Amino acid sequence: MNAAKAAGYFIGENPARLDVLKNLLPHRPRKAVEHHSAMPWRDVPALMAELKGKEPLSARALEWTILTAVRTSDTLSAQWTEIDERACLWTIPDVRTKQGRPHRVPLCRQTLELLSRLRRDEGGLLFPGQEGKPLSNMTMQKLLKTLRPGFTVHGFRSTIKDWCAENGIVHEVSEAILGHAVAKTQTVAAYLRTDYLDERRKVMSRWANFILPPPPKPARPRPRVRRSMWMNG
Question: What is the pLDDT of residues 127-149, one digit of tens each?
Answer without folding.
Answer: 998 887 889 989 999 999 999 99
